[in-house]
């Protein structure tokens, strides 16, 4: 399960899911955006359940162990940390192995607060952290209609799926490769103008 992905790129898909309980006296952060609410998600970091689901999806696409192994909550360095930093760190791995995000789609399951007004800001913040266009990042919000723990507002959950593929070669590299493939021009014949 934890063998490193060989640097022979193709498309790879990953999925991630996460749940955090809601607690008093905590800031609610979703997709890197602080949202005014009477309670926030509890956890070791900022408990950004959406960023965590995306992080796990990326790690899954790479074939790496999940967030719990990568950023253990026993590590004091991660206390109160912004989860966008986890995303930035994982994206460095994605790029180092020759991949880029094709697109990702995520859904936040929350009974309250209403997330619709914040979705665009979340997409922009996530895209910035991931270093990809906002058009490649989908974020949806779904209520649970009062059903189950999420419906009773005991917590918030998120699910994400991400597709990664070979990163386009840098511009200069592409031009260089094309130049290397080009056949040498035949020498101009002399005489006969
Ligand atoms: Zn989490």
Q: How many separate helices?
A: 6
What spatial form do the alpha-carbon principal axes imply? Answer: globular
Q: Could you spell the SSE succession in H and E letters?
A: EEEEHHHEHEHEH
**Tally of DSSP β-strands:** 7
Helical fraction equals 25-40%
Low-confidence stretches: none
Rg computed from alpha carbons, rounded to a whole number of angstroms: 22 Å
Provide the list of bound ligands, each named once. zinc ion
- The CATH topology comes to 60s Ribosomal Protein L30, Chain: A
Distance between the termini: 69 Å
Number of domains: 1
Mean pLDDT figure: 89
> Helix- and strand-based class?
alpha+beta
Q: Any guess at the CATH architecture? A: 2-Layer Sandwich
CATH homologous superfamily heading:
2-C-methyl-D-erythritol 2,4-cyclodiphosphate synthase
Strand fraction equals 25-35%
Largest sheet data: 5 strands, mixed
CATH class: Alpha Beta
